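[retry 2/3] DNA-3-methyladenine glycosylase I: previous attempt timed out, resubmitting with same input.
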Amino acid sequence: MSTYCDHAPGHPFHGPYHDHEYGFPVRDDDRLFERLILEINQAGLSWLTVLKKREAFSAAFNDFSVARVAAYDDTQRARLLADAGIIRNRRKVDAAIHNANVVLDLQDSHGSFAAWLDAHHPLALPEWVKLFKRTFRFTGPEIVNEFLMSTGYLPGAHREDCPIQHQIRAQRPPWLNIE
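[retry 2/3] DNA-3-methyladenine glycosylase I: success.
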């Protein structure tokens, strides 16, 4: 069975993501928000499509600044829906703005989005999915699984024999603490 670790290395988009981001622990709230927005936008599309549009997403969403996106109004929503550089899906755009406000609430209640994730770790994937569905919009099982794997909260981003796995383990991702 072919895995991401087999086909990503050397690819112009998948390679850098595989080698430097996927599965590495993320602590910065804007970067966590970025991953959540990218995973939401991948729903129904290929990851390559999202990676190719990543720079446009970053520009459209003010480098994924939680505070700035949370303040978006109808004018900003219309701007996003007219931006051909990103995925112009009303439900995904609305989810991004709504979820930015949720992250602000989590920052108020827990100190940060990362601290909220830490407060619920470790959970089994079905429990994470229930929690995310209660908390955020547009977060089904695949989105939650990929978000948590990509940010180091769940194992499985890389095969054990992938050289990147050793680098990730050295950074002590949250999932490593439950093995």
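[retry 2/3] DNA-3-methyladenine glycosylase I: The mean pLDDT is 96.
[retry 2/3] clearing retry counter.
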